């Protein structure tokens, strides 16, 4: 693992998160600064800083979980649309250097642009959505 990696710590349960789905190789949890309600992240459990240095098998497992969780988000949040986002490098506004995919529900007029600023979310609202999406994940 990366020593100071916050997502490794989330994977290990050393720091808390609103978990949605977990299997042997991947973890999905709510983003703590959601750009829209239902914004969540999917990571491989094996540390890799970015796409370029990831193992193909970890990436394949991660994408299977992305699909699974995105379907649950779609069902619960019923967004106008849904984007996936994955950043590589500070120049792409990557701020956590453990490979992750953002699942971002979209609002009709949310005016969301790339490189949004971080704004803390309401923990109760995040937890409530986490519970609903968790229940909606199908195997
Ligand atoms: P990046 O900018 O690297 O693509 O995205 C990193 C994401 O991780 C950001 O959306 C940020 O809100 C989220 N994040 C950073 N620290 C934590 C944390 O401790 N817990 C959770 N759940 N999300 C985090
Ligand atoms: Zn890590």
Give a description of the structure.
With 139 residues, this protein is an alpha+beta fold. The protein has three helices and five strands. Strands 1-2-3-5-4 form a five-stranded antiparallel sheet. A hairpin with a 3-residue loop joins strand 1 and strand 2. Helix 2 crosses helix 3. The structure holds guanosine-5'-monophosphate (5GP) and zinc ion (ZN). Guanosine-5'-monophosphate binds next to strand 2.
List the helices and strands and how they pair.
Layout: H1 6-12, E1 19-22, E2 26-30, E3 40-44, H2 56-77, E4 81-85, E5 101-106, H3 123-136
Antiparallel strand pairs: 1-2, 2-3, 3-5, 4-5
The structure holds guanosine-5'-monophosphate (5GP) and zinc ion.
Guanosine-5'-monophosphate binds next to strand 2.
Cα-based radius of gyration, to the nearest Å:
14 Å
Strand content: 15-25%
- Compressed to H and E, one letter per element, the order equals HEEEHEEH
Would you identify the regions where 5 or more consecutive residues have pLDDT less than 50?
none
Question: How would a textbook summarize the main sheet?
Answer: 5 strands, antiparallel
Helix content: 25-40%
- Small molecules held by this entry: guanosine-5'-monophosphate, zinc ion
- CATH fold annotation: HIT family, subunit A
Basic shape:
globular
What spatial order of strands do you see in the largest sheet?
1-2-3-5-4
The CATH superfamily turns out to be HIT-like
Name of the level-1 CATH class: Alpha Beta
Question: Could you say how many structural domains there are in total?
Answer: 1
Mean of pLDDT: 95
Alpha-beta classification: alpha+beta
CATH architect. name: 2-Layer Sandwich
Number of strands: 5
């Amino acid at each position: 693992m990366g020593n100071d990696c916050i997502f490794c710590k989330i994977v290990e349960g050393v720091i808390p998160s609103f978990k949605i789905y977990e299997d042997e190789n991947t973890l999905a949890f709510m983003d703590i600064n959601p750009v829209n309600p239902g914004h969540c992240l999917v990571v491989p459990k094996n540390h890799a800083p970015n796409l370029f240095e990831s193992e193909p098998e970890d990436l394949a497992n991660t994408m299977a979980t992305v699909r699974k969780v995105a379907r649950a988000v779609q069902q619960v949040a019923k967004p106008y649309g849904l984007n996936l986002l994955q950043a590589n490098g500070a120049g792409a506004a990557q701020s956590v250097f453990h490979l992750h995919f953002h699942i971002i529900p979209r609002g009709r007029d949310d005016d969301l642009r790339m490189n949004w600023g971080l704004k803390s979310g309401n923990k109760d609202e995040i937890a409530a959505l986490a519970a609903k999406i968790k229940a909606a994940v199908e195997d």
